[in-house]
Amino acid sequence: MKEETCLLTVEDALKLGRDEVTETYRKYVNPGWAALQSLLEIDFNYVRAEGCVVWDEGGNEYLDFVGGFGSLNLGHNHPAVLEALRRVEQAPVILQTALGKFAAVLAHNLARAAPGELQNCWFCSSGAEAVEGALKLARIYTGRKAFLSCTGGFHGKTMGALSVTGREKYRHPFEPLLPFCINVPFGDAGALERALREHRPAAFIVEPILGEGGIILPPPGYLEQARLLCSRSGTLLILDEIQTGLGRTGTLFACQQEGVVPDVLVLAKSLGGGVAPIGAYITTAHIMKKAYGGSLERGLMLTSTFGGNTRSTAAAIASLEVLLREDLPRAAAEKGDYFLHRLKELQEKYDAVEDVRGRGLLIGMELAGSGGLLDYLTAGTVQRLSANFLSSLVAAEMLKKYGVMVAFTLNNPRVIRLEPPLTVGYEQIDRVVEAFDDFFSGHGGFVQLALKSGKGAVSSLLRN
Predict the structure, then answer these.
(1) What are the structural domain ranges in the chain?
(2) Is 378 buried (19+), middle (13-18) or exposed (0-12) by CB count in 10 A?
């Protein structure tokens, strides 16, 4: 073993400066991600966060409109969630020889909040793990092998979740993945019907709104049609509400806006109140009993070491309570309508903004691509810059010049996602809109950034 004196402590971590963080992360975690952040000059050292606001080591203030990719519906460090963790700090966190009372209470509360007859929960530590569990549930319940999912959809990066994720860029390096996974176009009920008939899948897994696909809304009635078609074919409908759930789109669950009840509802991200990692699926008592309730051996197939632990479930209990008590889904709907209206004004004003779309506080701003944003912003100076990095560069400039955090979507990098906490204030929304307005009106910041990156840096971006 290496010398004990080489180990760093929590106090050491708290004292690290920006350059030390970047170098240590580059050396011991993910060198590619560290290099990209350093190249874009956004490797800031943040030391405090509250609500929608984050502060760096120099005391500079930033608005967080990334929101942990939908994990921070309550904002950073919500006091009710922190208080729940304090209340259980002396309780056993993991005790495998006993039933988890906090897991039981959380499951009860989710059953009361979820639509239809959804009742039985399985808890784990992440969204991808919850997707894995839902796929296994579908196979053991139906006895079938195939899965349908949507082109452009995103369900995680573990092997099973990746197998039903709809972008080749992420799938190809890890093939062969799970067999019998078929993509269908999102929003095309006819294509879904044909695939259900041809493949007789165990499940159709779909996001109510494609998040990483670029904040793509389905045609009206699509989820209702999917529900009907899956019921007819004996296929389970799995709705992945990891990003859309828990108030994000203006109702507690996005499926409620079409009156659709899935067979399996998958949750994670903000379920833990932005503090504790937790994922879950919730299904009907009938499905759970047939799948895992028939024998002791079946029941032992449904375990997860950290799933349902005291702290994550206590945080989730508090998070759900705050969401409902403060009626944050309604707040998301009202603030989202306001935000969309303000952003659509920018779309009408600037050719650089190709589209603005979303529901509630899940909003995407699509930038014009080659021949659009590139020509508009750079007058042909940086034509070689790939469209895959346009929103990354815009996001970097928004952070450095305006103190606003935004990010791109994984399956459509021309789309800037805007997912502030549901507690965001109208004045904070106005500040972000004004920052975009100033950026697009001047557009020199993008040119300077691209030129400053230099030929070698741009080539590096394009290679990656």
Answers:
(1) 4-22+40-76+328-463, 79-325
(2) middle
**Residues belonging to the active site:** 154, 240, 269
Mean per-residue pLDDT for 239-249? 98
Q: What is the pLDDT of residue 146?
A: 98
- The reply to whether CATH 3.40.50.2000 applies to domain 79-325 is no
Task: Report the C-alpha dihedral over residues 76, 79, 85, 88, rounded to 10 degrees.
Answer: -170
Residue 443's pLDDT is what? 59
238 with 282: CB under 8 angstroms? no
Lowest-confidence segment of 172-181, 283-292, 385-394 by average pLDDT: 385-394
Contact status, residue 95 vs residue 313, Cβ threshold 8 Å: no
Which of 165, 258, 262 has its CA nearest to residue 219? 258
Strand-by-strand arrangement of the 203-206 sheet:
118-124, 279-284, 264-267, 236-240, 203-206, 147-150, 181-184
Q: Please name the residues in contact with 411: beta carbons below 8 A apart, sequence gap of 6 or more.
A: 152, 153, 154, 166, 167, 210, 212, 213, 214
CATH architecture of 4-22+40-76+328-463: Alpha-Beta Complex (3.90)
The mean-pLDDT minimum among 90-99, 101-110, 236-245, 369-378 falls in 369-378
Residue 378 has pLDDT above 70, yes or no: no
